[in-house]
Amino acid sequence: MLETAIWVTGTPFSGVELVASALAEKCQSSAVAIDPYLRSNADIADVTANGFEWESVIRSAIGSPQGRQGFGTDDPAGTGRPAIVHSLRHHEAYSDILAKVGSLKILAVVANPVASIATWLDEIGPAAGSDGASPDWRGGAAEGTGNGAFGGFEDWKRITSLQIDGARRHPDRFRVIPLDAFQENRDAVVEDVLNWLGIEPGQARAHLTSDADAPAFDGPAYAANALDAVDPAVRFEIGRELVGTPLARFCDTRTLAVGAGWTGPPADRNVGKAKAGIDDLAFFGGPALFQRGAPRPIGQLVQPSAEAFSDAVDTIYETQRISNNGHLVQSLEERLKAYHSVRNCVVMASASLAIIGLLQLASRTDRRNIVLPAFTYVGLPHLARWAGFEPLFCDVDRTTHTISPTDLERLIGDDVAAVLAVHQVNAPCHHAELTEIGDRHGVPIIYDSVHALGCTLPDGTPIGALGVAEVFSLHATKMLNGFEGGYITTNDDDLAERLRKVRNFGYRNEISTEMIGLNAKLNEIHAGFALASLDEIDDVIRRNKERYDRYKAAFDGIPGVTILPYGEGYRDKNFEFALIDVSESWPLGRDETVQLLRAENALARQYYNEPLYLHSDYPSAGNRQKPNLPQSVVMPLMPVTDALSRRIIQMPVGESVSLEDIDAMGEWFRFISSTASDIIPRLRETGAPVW
């Protein structure tokens, strides 16, 4: 019997020879490739036969000239050193080998599948396998790689699963190690393996390996280089298949992370052909203007410099702080204070949490209603409820689309705790009039300024210092992208200090609280992304202006539709939105137009579709009609809001929309205008619900 035998196994390009050689060096023994030995001895029986003598074959291989040379003796078995063989085959025979060689243990080496595939493709090059077929990363090649058969990704999954199962069935005799771990710290891995084998390492000496491919794996950087060499589509498809499986431990985290959210190769961003007839409309089954995998959205979706963001992430590692008012959050607050020309900026985890906290601290506690514009985002009244108040809706100005001072004057009373006014993208609120009304009634004015970032008043004053405080967003769809987040600007030092406590559970110190608080802290990663985005805000606004001007040119002269202008209430504008006013002379309904447009993968929306004052916050199950207003509250008709909410379309904008896309949408509207008499009856025949 062999005193100690080690079988090192794996797929081609998994570093089997390298690991076997490292073990042999430590043990003063020889690492012998069993596969060439079997191929060179034609008299050896079929290894798959039941009676195949594995121990005899291992003894013969160790006693071969190669084995004797590695041991430095003609009698390797007499040295007492372990016999080390390595193989890229015979994976189905693991149980048979263990059963027939009682002194043997199996060490399986598993490489990152992406790195293995990259190494194989690099070796085989543009040449095909032995049958002349093109290299196939999933199916591999039959022969001809110089290192045994490589079965590709499918074979890697099958063999690695066999190895994991072997380790599960035979924990004392079968071990699996990732090649990446070996490359990162080979001495520690070798020592751990030797301890598992119960072997004392001998004096290091020269050794000889056969059929080795060590140069392909020699160095910790091999995997990173290989990953960069693989087609991203291949890499991410591998990640998508492995994430969440036992095999994922052998794949790099980037491949798994991107693979988890990957939906396929990037779609073609080219614009489809112009419509020649109504059958070409996507709603009627024709080809869409934009590919489904590359729709044109309505959000900004700015991606700042990867280098700038990477520098910010480096700061996180240097400071060893990822949250709790870290260095990047403090830097972001300082930058935003300067940008808005205010004394205080308090960054929070979202604009919604910022509004909730601000309403709780700044509103009058002896009253219950928060006045909101009826023409605004559908989620805003929810925040008043979360803060403990009831929403009370006010009609808006026909031109600015912001709270009408005249209507506010009629609405405000002894039960109003605060006014939450909303600056619109095309115009700011009538802030002087609102301030006068608020002061006269003792009601604080708070501003939702999410769509006013980068805008200034006619005298050049940046939006940010109006009212008690203003709230901005760091959401990915907004002007300043921090993934998620929001912030409050104010010149009230006491309010700012209380807001900082509110965002951190109301803590006064490490163990005591002085108010009801939230966990609204922004983490350092989001702050770093926002800082990188802030560096580019002027360029973002410039590109927005180019898109807005292109919309005006592309839609010029189309009867019944007008690109809404940006008013004189702002001196500097951010051009965040492109809004279309659909008049009565436009032949289709506004909602019908949006329905047809979305079928083309242009993700337009009705702009504030339903007046909020028509909704209730207590819907029955499945009832979407009234999600915003308490049933006990009855609001009068608000004619301006009612009219605006039925005529405006929010068009695709942002970094995912090109000038050519805008031209194509302009031509699409012209086509709809010229063929409306044919479209309308067919559209209304379908009975399809309007989105």
UniProtKB/TrEMBL annotation:
Coiled-coil region(s): none
Alphabetized GO MF terms: pyridoxal phosphate binding; transaminase activity
InterPro entries from the UniProt entry: DegT/StrS_aminotransferase, PyrdxlP-dep_Trfase, PyrdxlP-dep_Trfase_major, PyrdxlP-dep_Trfase_small
Presence of keyword Transcription: no
Gene3D superfamilies: Aspartate Aminotransferase, domain 1, Type I PLP-dependent aspartate aminotransferase-like (Major domain)
Keywords: Pyridoxal phosphate
GO biological process, one term: polysaccharide biosynthetic process
Recorded family membership: Belongs to the DegT/DnrJ/EryC1 family.
Entry protein name: DegT/DnrJ/EryC1/StrS aminotransferase
Source organism (scientific name): Rhodobium orientis
